[in-house]
Amino acid sequence: MSTFKQHSVLPGFNLALGFTLIYLSLIVLIPLSAAFFRTAELTWTEFWTVVTTPRVLASYRLTFGASFAAALTNALFGLLIAWVLVRYQFTGKRLIDALIDLPFALPTAVAGIALTALYAGNGWIGQFLEPLGIKVAFTPIGIYVALTFIGLPFVVRTVQPVLEDIETELEEAAAMLGANRLQIFLRIIFPAIFPALMTGFALAFARAIGEYGSVIFIAGNMPMVSEITPLLIITKLEQYDYAGATAIAVVMLVISFILLLIVNLLQWWSRHRNALA
Amino acid sequence: MSIEIRHLSKQFGTFAALRDVNLEIQSGELLALLGPSGSGKTTLLRVIAGLETADSGQVLFNNEDTTRQSIRDRQVGFVFQHYALFRNMTIFENVAFGLRVRPKDCRLKDAEIRERVTNLLQLVQLDWLADRYPHQLSGGQRQRIALARALAVEPKVLLLDEPFGALDAKVRKELRIWLRRLHDDMHITSVFVTHDQEEALEVSDRVVVMNEGRIEQIGTPDAVYEQPANPFVYEFLGHVNLFHGRIHRGRAIISDIEIEAPEHAEAENLAAIAYVRPHDIEIDRVTNGESALAAHIVHIVSIGPIVRLELAHDDSSNKNLVQVEISKDRFRELQLTKGDRVYIKPRRLELFPSHASANSIH
Q1: What interface predicted TM-score (ipTM) does this complex get?
Q2: Exposed e or buried b per residue across A45-67, where buried means at least 16 C-beta atoms within 10 angstroms of its C-beta
């Protein structure tokens, strides 16, 4: 036990930490706790009934399922896009690089309307898919498409800088030792970008869970089939059922938190293993 | 394995990295590629490795053209300046990497891999670090691991790109002695790149001096140091003093001194530059009748057993300071101090007609 104050070269640790905590409280924790307080108006049985009705359960499955699928898709193709942007030189590269961020800037409702127009039965893309028996708009697939769209930038932007930092010497060294391209990717490159990929995946996943604007246009919002949890919450709010709305929100919050925690642990574990620190 | 390089040229944009390079490397030899940065030495090494393709020319291993051979088929070990160890793998796995990525049908059994890696780690005297990660090792240790990793696949040729460039002076010295000893035990054909002339002269069997994409001279360390082929090599290998003078019918005239220069017997009053190493200059307080240059001492630096003097000519036409190295005993004997007047005389010099050296005088 030491009574000496630890001195750091960076001044203002106490001040910075204090500010961080106050800021986080004001911006994140207090509003979130309000949801919990509001929910507390319900008894346990009431709470349980509200959050376990088949309609709510279906919406949880859809929201988390579609978000997970969309985040997974983004992880795969985001990695591919980042790879192309980092590894190859071609004309129009800057343009494509700028396009990546567009889903961030676009109002989500606009994205939803545009996607609906494209994928509806008479839309540009939808007219070709419909004869094949694939309906995208107004189905869970539509939700998945919308969530994939809005989550695209996350993986690209987290993986890109890490990929840029991998020294070509490492790959050359592996090639000199007889490794083929697949082995170089799997054993050298992938371990290095895995933590960043996980971060991108987690961000895209979290963003998809909370997404509302783009989804409601393309989803069709049929109860039990294509109704997402955020919409259910809005519906409850419109009926002045604040306690019911927050109850559903609280469950969503807890599940999201647990999932993100798992992702963070995975990331910490892989980073630790990679000894990148 | 012997290596033959024929008419190799390589261009990066407008920059010619290699210009018609020809070189033969004998089997089991330890060869140094020495030159300033931008001289093409690293490019040459990378072309031999197959990491770079030449625009024209051939690289032959044991008289076999490798131009179309893939990196993997060349059986070359490569050591990078910045080690290029895989940081997500332990030291053991780093060394084992080349054995583990082999196709299934010619991969060694796990126990055999374990044995070979352990032997290699013992060879580089770092077997106690097997379970560590690269970032936990010092620079010198990392480079030894990188060498063990390159040796694991039993290469026929070992190529080292500035292997000691990122290390501090003491570790550098230790490692190059160690590399020399390792080479003497294994006799694997090795080529290493360096810009450090001391390193090249100390470690290698032969030195290839490169400049601006061309080979200036090939020879044993003694040969390139004692008989430099041209002014560039002279200036690049160690300190050198330049004296402007003339050559006339087998005699060199530099200010007040005249020296026999029989190899220039047919020269008629030709401007020339004399190159003299600092330790090839005699110094005395008095002239013994022979011709000598008068100078005074400007600066005295004592480095271990030798003393380096900087002298200024009394004759103002030669403005450059002259560097002279003498032994500490001689220095004590002469009892020199700053400002003293002395007489100097080159013991050995090399003359180059000045038009030939015009490019390389700074």
Answers
A1: 0.80
A2: eebeebbeeeebebbbebbbebb
